[in-house]
Design brief:
about 425 residues; five-stranded mixed sheet; 9 helices; about 15% strand
Amino acid sequence: MKETVKTYAAKLKLGPHHAIERFGVITSVVAATFAMLLVGTIVSATANNRARLDETALYTASFTTSRTELSGTVDGVYTNGEGTRALVLMRFDDSAAGSFSTDAANYQAFLTGSNEQLDTQALATAITGSIVVFGSTGYLGVVLESDAPFEQQIASLTLRANSELVYKEGTGRELREDLQDDGSFTEFDQWRLFVNPGASGTEEAASLEGESVDPAALYYELVVAEQEQEIRAAMDEQLMEMRTVLARIDEYDGEMSRVNVDGVFIEPPQVPVQVDGDAVTGEPADAETESTLALETDWVDPRGYDFDWRSGSVEEGYLDAVMPADETSYVTFLGEKARAEDEENAGFSANDMEWLLTDGNDLKEQGQTSQAMEPLTDIMNNTTQAYQDYHRLKTSYQVDSYSELLDLEVTLRGVDSSGSVNAGEEALLTY
């Protein structure tokens, strides 16, 4: 056994005379292993960076102009299906209203390539572009176009407002670190964004298809559509709430014919005109079907509306169908609606209802003097509260929610009439 071990040790050079050789072999193996790990780490980091570059479309979520110090957000980067047209959509904060130009001709953009270290590079894609201002909504965007799909590359996009509508003392003195070596940010009112229009993380927008840029179509798809869906969802909730309160009222009506005190019942009171005959028909949405809920009513708040909002849309428009035939201005029509006087509704209070008993007495008076009438006064109080709750919900539905839909349409019409596009040769300069 010992001889066998010695034989193998000699063959493997494990004896004391081969220590230096063994050290060299071990060192070489360790060095090779470390090199493999290092290469693997570099390859993995490169792959991760490439994946991040491929996915990330927007690197700058907000901005502040260099001279007037107006702030805003970048809502996203949108592309057409072919990846040859992109829109970088921005929005000034509400606090900036009236402080910026609504004419696209007063804006200019500059585009160049960049890396993640903010070093300037040549653009990998030949790009032209234009600037879109969506009227007075606070939204504006830069449209980038190419004959071929955008390459994977971070782009440095600088916006310049050539019209300053506010004055800030000492403007341009405190700039972002990466802007301090660019004197143009002190001379002009500018802001800079970093985007990657070739990234997989862009959102596809159907309104970017076609030959020309339509501000109204873009604004509807990218801004209004989501707001409209939120309003419609809220209106569905209001209809469900109204249906529940109407069921509660029906329950209390049934109690009036069942509950008595010593043979004395409540005489069913006259139902307020704002509630009388109302019903919520249809079914709520489920996994397979959309909601069909609708309010059937004979009474509409003079300041409110009762058109079929579910069958239409803000994009198709409601106003033309809602306005009287002899009315030509929707501005006048909406103004008169908002100022409409409602003598019936202004003084609505279910507490003013008359509550009589079958013996001819007044339940309100009896309830104050006789605790025995408590079962009947409970019905009266519950019904009164239900009428109040229903009237509040109905007013919010007919006046507030319907008006919100029409307000969106008015805004969209405003973008259609006052939105502007700057597609001039100097609208977007690349370098």
